[in-house]
């Protein structure tokens, strides 16, 4: 599919009009394996940012999973057996998540924790995230917490058929998250599916745009990308400022 123009290459920087908040925060919710990460990756790619080195990136993606809280020894044992509920809002370090998003909104450089799905633990070192023009936060419960939900300037919900999600989750969790089929199905039926219905699905109503079929929905993704580009397109007055100075104070 042809894309009109790619932000960050020939086009001016994504700093935008005075009335467009910077960074522009986009929340991307949806059930497990619905394609949230894939949709974000496509948006980033179509904004011409996929190949940009992290320090200079104007668009970046954060996963809510980075903010899973540290478990106590008893919880950790349950996690190993597939009996800890990672789909419940209590599984997250909401204070850290909210504080980090506030810092991002204030254009601060932050450290995003790195979460290891195999060990169910946060790694010792996180990832540095520099101020960006567009920040996407994807996760099953990004619209659940009102303080977080209210921070987003655009809210997307990826709506993929549950059978498709389960089959993708099985393949992914075996390949990438060190699981066996029996534990995946046990966790899914006892915890993941009920929590999806109780906590995630009811947040669909907060979405500005619902994306059926996830990353396969190129029409929806194109429209969203065009909208972001339109919002971020500098006016003539701003264009002069871009040519003479960086608005970000970040190395290129
Ligand atoms: N449209 C698609 N077609 C085939 N596989 C897909 C598609 N979208 C996502 N996947 C695969 O499904 C799994 C979950 O996708 P992902 O984007 O990580 O979902 P989420 O972030 O919602 O968990 C991944 O292994 C991914 O490669
Ligand atoms: O240690 C863990 C942490 C999380 N999970 C599962 O991950 C998904 C959320 O990630 P998606 O990429 O959105 O699928 C959630 O459903 C948890 O059950 C896990 O299994 N183990």
UniProtKB/TrEMBL annotation:
Its EC number is 2.7.1.48. Belongs to the uridine kinase family. It catalyses: cytidine + ATP = CMP + ADP + H(+); uridine + ATP = UMP + ADP + H(+). The keyword ATP-binding applies. It is an enzyme of class 2 (transferase). Residues 25-219 form the Phosphoribulokinase/uridine kinase domain. It comes from Littorina saxatilis. Pathway: Pyrimidine metabolism; CTP biosynthesis via salvage pathway; CTP from cytidine: step 1/3; Pyrimidine metabolism; UMP biosynthesis via salvage pathway; UMP from uridine: step 1/1. The lineage of its organism: Eukaryota, Metazoa, Spiralia, Lophotrochozoa, Mollusca. This is Uridine kinase. Keywords: ATP-binding, Kinase, Nucleotide-binding, Transferase. Pfam families: PRK. One of its GO terms (molecular function) is uridine kinase activity. SUPFAM superfamilies: P-loop containing nucleoside triphosphate hydrolases (SSF52540).
